[in-house]
Write a structure and sequence with these properties.
By secondary structure, the protein is an alpha/beta fold. It is 40% helix and 18% strand.
Length: 328
């Protein structure tokens, strides 16, 4: 059983637990054959693709998978904890957790240009991961959550696909890509069959630079906390209203802008939280979710009561185009 580099033209869409299980069995055999008694390194973000890759590798080679979870300080509330709970505590993975929050936020301090922010986050991520990789010895393989649309997009010249994540040259690995020939819905089907929690398997798209692009302008810790807390409230309330998994993407944004308010008879000068909820098929265009008004008001009340430094809550009505989904 060899790992396939190209999706066979006649491959049936994996749309049932039975087909997912057959794929898992094939891949476990393929991984064992490729890796032998070697060790495999993986950057585990907690996103669907890398989580499914991790679960497949744990099944195939157990603690010979070394998974590194880098917390860049821009993850959503509860995400690093979930990665540790699922992979270390439940699946007994060999997981290295790196809290690099201070490092990232120090580098980002005072930087307001969106592309510069993205570049700093990307470069720092590779540096932190490379430092961890250099501490380990005897690892010949690097697993990646490349999926079939990544290959198609890179062939079509739409998006450069960075093999080995742009690692420095002294770190050269043989790639292990067990979900390379799968479409996203198939990755989710396989993840479900591997026993990953629904919150991980069906999670909404989340950009690599994370909350960094939703803390518009130069990131500060207080505004980042306001984004994280308000996003957690939004997600909780959407889940309670049965909208989780139905609305394509929803999040909050806190721009670098204050406005006047009044609290206990005193003037305030505080941040605003913008709520965004959109539907899309492939993110190239998006429409606005018609969130029930009563739900919006409940979210507003909770944000005012629970999030520090906020005196205004707004709902974004912009579709894509003319707006993009994210703010930066
Ligand atoms: P935009 O803002 O371009 O976003 O309408 C389209 C979709 O892509 C996600 N997105 C990203 N995903 N890295 C990612 O992995 C990124 O830098 C990034 N920027 C945007 C966004 O969340 C939306 O789903």
């Amino acid at each position: 059983m060899q790992q396939l580099l190209v999706r066979p033209e006649n491959m049936k869409r994996i749309d049932s637990p039975a087909l997912a299980q057959a794929y898992i069995d094939e891949q476990v055999a393929a991984i064992r054959e490729q890796v032998g008694d070697g060790k495999v390194l993986l950057a585990l973000s907690g996103g669907v693709d890398s989580s499914v890759v991790a679960a497949l590798l744990i099944k195939a080679i157990g603690d010979r998978l070394v998974a590194v979870h880098v917390n860049h300080g821009l993850l959503r509330k509860g995400e690093p904890e979930q990665v540790i709970e699922v992979f270390r505590n439940q699946m007994h993975a060999n997981l290295i957790y790196v809290d690099a929050t201070d490092r990232f936020l120090d580098k980002l301090a005072g930087v307001s240009d969106p592309e510069t922010k993205r570049k700093i986050i990307g470069k720092e991520f590779i540096e932190v991961f490379a430092e961890e990789a250099r501490k380990l010895t005897g690892i010949r393989f690097l697993a990646q959550g490349t999926i079939w649309p990544d290959i198609l997009e890179s062939e079509a010249g739409i998006k450069a696909h960075h093999n080995a994540g742009g690692l420095p040259e002294d770190l050269s690995f043989e790639l292990v890509e067990p979900v390379r020939i799968l479409f996203k819905d198939e990755v989710r089907m396989v993840g479900k069959a591997l026993g990953l929690p629904d919150g991980m398997v069906y999670r909404q798209p989340f950009p690599g630079p994370g909350l960094g692009v939703r803390c518009v302008g130069a990131i500060t810790r207080d505004r980042l906390a306001a984004v994280r807390e308000s996003d957690a409230i939004l997600r909780e309330e959407f889940a309670a209203a049965g909208l989780q998994g139905k609305v394509w993407q929803y999040f909050t944004v806190v721009p670098d802008m204050k406005s006047t308010g009044i609290k206990n008879g005193q003037r305030t000068d505080d941040w605003m939280v913008i709520i965004r909820a959109v539907n899309s098929v492939d993110a190239t265009s998006a429409t606005i979710e018609e969130v029930p008004y009563a739900l919006l008001l409940r979210i507003r009340d909770r944000i005012f009561a629970e999030v520090k430094g906020v005196n205004r809550v707004l709902y974004d009505l912009s579709c894509k185009p003319i707006a993009t989904i994210e703010y930066e």
